[in-house]
């Protein structure tokens, strides 16, 4: 979707530090619009996943605020769904019961649970698999269950922490297509943390690049239009964005190299 929509989420000058005052996130400010797809990339340990946890309400910032639709939030809520890298599915429950788990804990009636779960399972392409055991599913199918479990709560913001990193390339690309379709159907705002530059470009309206200090180094607008088609991955436009983001990710290394000198 276009980033020209209505402002929905404001990440207002967020700071997060460890107990020893080592900074994880430093003065991160970003406004995200309704229906926008944002990807965050950066080296391991730069604060990407921590920022998702702050938005979700799992981590409280030392400074700054998370504001959603004009309201400051400081704890988890149904308006934000989280798909973790570790799927955390319950192997003793079948697909339907895994998807329904959160609704059951929230006291939703069985009739409504079943209706909402079947809708979410259909949306992720698992209709007919409701009663299958988790152990009988492929990696891609398990990831679809995790996404359905999040969608069933009908969040307005979907937070995803490297959800496809453990999958083979073909399955990963298939799920990327599914994610774009789901976002189009629901109008959700999506914030994705990924180490894949290609994934970030293909899915996103904007790509946010974190540096090693937990700060935003650059924000790249992806002007590839919608809907995205797989062939765009081999276009010159795609490769130009890839070159730009690769240079952004190398920025910290270049600064370090220059400051240390190149002599033997």
TrEMBL record:
<dbReference type="InterPro" id="IPR050166">
    <property type="entry name" value="ABC_transporter_ATP-bind"/>
</dbReference>
<dbReference type="InterPro" id="IPR003593">
    <property type="entry name" value="AAA+_ATPase"/>
</dbReference>
<dbReference type="InterPro" id="IPR017871">
    <property type="entry name" value="ABC_transporter-like_CS"/>
</dbReference>
<dbReference type="GO" id="GO:0016887">
    <property type="term" value="F:ATP hydrolysis activity"/>
</dbReference>
<dbReference type="GO" id="GO:0015418">
    <property type="term" value="F:ABC-type quaternary ammonium compound transporting activity"/>
</dbReference>
<comment type="subunit">
    <text>The complex is composed of two ATP-binding proteins (OpuCA), two transmembrane proteins (OpuCB and OpuCD) and a solute-binding protein (OpuCC).</text>
</comment>
<dbReference type="GO" id="GO:0005524">
    <property type="term" value="F:ATP binding"/>
</dbReference>
<keyword id="KW-0813">Transport</keyword>
<keyword id="KW-0067">ATP-binding</keyword>
<feature type="domain" description="ABC transporter">
    <location>
        <begin position="9"/>
        <end position="237"/>
    </location>
</feature>
<keyword id="KW-0547">Nucleotide-binding</keyword>
<dbReference type="Pfam" id="PF00005">
    <property type="entry name" value="ABC_tran"/>
</dbReference>
<protein>
    <recommendedName>
        <fullName>Carnitine transport ATP-binding protein OpuCA</fullName>
        <ecNumber>7.6.2.9</ecNumber>
    </recommendedName>
</protein>
<dbReference type="InterPro" id="IPR027417">
    <property type="entry name" value="P-loop_NTPase"/>
</dbReference>
<dbReference type="InterPro" id="IPR003439">
    <property type="entry name" value="ABC_transporter-like_ATP-bd"/>
</dbReference>
